[in-house]
Amino acid sequence: MSDLPSIAIVDANNFYVSCERIFDPRLEGKPVVVLSNNDGCVIARSQEAKTLGIDMASPWHSIAAEATARGVIARSSNYELYGDLSARTVELLGRYTSSQEVYSIDESFIRLTGTPQQVTAAAREIRVATKKLIGLPVSIGIAPSKTLAKLANRGSKTAPALLGVCNLAAYAPAQLTSILQSVEVGQVWGIGGRTAKKLIGLGIYTAAELRDADAARVRRRFGVVQERVVQELRGNDCLPLEEMHADRDQIQFSRSFATPISTVSELKEVLSVYTQRASARLRQQNSLARLMRCYASTSPFQDEHVTHAVSLAFPDPTDDPVEMYRAAITALGPQLQSDRQYVRVGVSLHEFSSRDTHAALDIFDTNPAPFAAGNVLDSITAKYGQETLGLGLAGFKSNRAWTMRRNMVSPRATTHWDELATVFAQ
DNA sequence: TCTGGGGTCCTAGGACCC
DNA sequence: TCTGGGGTCCTAGGACCC
């Protein structure tokens, strides 16, 4: 038994559903699902909903009638609420570790040090604290590598006797092997459906068989990513914790519409809003973008699915929403065909540089500094809300046909005074 | 009527250069 | 008959993740 640092993954159970339940306890014990933007697909399910056989990613429109008849309660996604509860969880975990990698909205890798018994005890404490102080149930998997920690995390959920904490250090090598033998290769973190299929073709069915495969052969066949998985399954830590959440390398803003669009004037409205949202995220991380991509697509579920995509480089890296909007509409506008029904538009920004670095190098710039519309927008929307102010059409509050459908959304109970939860005494 | 959104990393292949 | 070879940069697309 070692005294080495362990990697723990702390993962909130059915995160979005658990968030909804914190502020609406009537949902406790009931089958609940949370829907994607536009109330499209199921993206989170309570245990009760899973037991009823509701699949992940089922289109809600095709199962709504039967599901509701069987008592399933649906909620539109409320990312403002989930994001806030996620941030609180990250802060809480920070009290238990010096290194944390925030891996997704509902998962963090943290480093824990001590004997296996001490590490397991710390994990149990974390579990109690997140439930008591935030209201979220979490499961924790612990191992020498991230991939094994993810595997342990699955175990912590499937074996009730573990009480939500699974530390692989507690098992002897033979036990560990039999655990890995019980895991299908496609369930391993980093092995997706395509690769799993090919591995099975080679006679590798389980995590144990992948661990014991010839690493060099796996690399030749599948690449370095999969070779790392093999190493990680052997307990060799190849994926370091990335503590500082680095700035993004790309930023995208895309949405499907409740009602399709087909005219350039509607496209202008959409691009006006999307370039402002994307550039706001860019300014938030103090970056400038050199490249922008924009696309408009018809429905992939109809015949003749088309996507018009344009890729354009700015003469100078920019974070200016006006410049982005003009470039986007100039490039994408002419591609639009009026007889088509576009259901989705996206804007993405790439090739970032730091705003500070760029300003320092920009000594030969002969253009006068443009009106800093972006910064003004940011400071006002930060204070008064996203919908307060926008350039052009984004400034109007009126409901446009193409905005998202969100018919079953819960209050933003932790971030808006007028949406606080109400407590009734019995 | 109705099918999400936002990321990362890696690789293949084209363009270009000497 | 016979059409270099190697390097870099760039981009699109694949695969995966939550």
TrEMBL record:
<dbReference type="InterPro" id="IPR050116">
    <property type="entry name" value="DNA_polymerase-Y"/>
</dbReference>
<keyword id="KW-0742">SOS response</keyword>
<dbReference type="InterPro" id="IPR001126">
    <property type="entry name" value="UmuC"/>
</dbReference>
<dbReference type="Pfam" id="PF13438">
    <property type="entry name" value="DUF4113"/>
</dbReference>
<dbReference type="InterPro" id="IPR025188">
    <property type="entry name" value="DUF4113"/>
</dbReference>
<dbReference type="Pfam" id="PF11799">
    <property type="entry name" value="IMS_C"/>
</dbReference>
<dbReference type="Pfam" id="PF00817">
    <property type="entry name" value="IMS"/>
</dbReference>
<comment type="similarity">
    <text>Belongs to the DNA polymerase type-Y family.</text>
</comment>
<keyword id="KW-0234">DNA repair</keyword>
<comment type="function">
    <text>Poorly processive, error-prone DNA polymerase involved in untargeted mutagenesis. Copies undamaged DNA at stalled replication forks, which arise in vivo from mismatched or misaligned primer ends. These misaligned primers can be extended by PolIV. Exhibits no 3'-5' exonuclease (proofreading) activity. May be involved in translesional synthesis, in conjunction with the beta clamp from PolIII.</text>
</comment>
<dbReference type="InterPro" id="IPR043128">
    <property type="entry name" value="Rev_trsase/Diguanyl_cyclase"/>
</dbReference>
<feature type="domain" description="UmuC">
    <location>
        <begin position="7"/>
        <end position="192"/>
    </location>
</feature>
<keyword id="KW-0741">SOS mutagenesis</keyword>
<dbReference type="InterPro" id="IPR043502">
    <property type="entry name" value="DNA/RNA_pol_sf"/>
</dbReference>
<protein>
    <submittedName>
        <fullName>Y-family DNA polymerase</fullName>
    </submittedName>
</protein>
<dbReference type="InterPro" id="IPR017961">
    <property type="entry name" value="DNA_pol_Y-fam_little_finger"/>
</dbReference>
<dbReference type="InterPro" id="IPR036775">
    <property type="entry name" value="DNA_pol_Y-fam_lit_finger_sf"/>
</dbReference>
<keyword id="KW-0227">DNA damage</keyword>
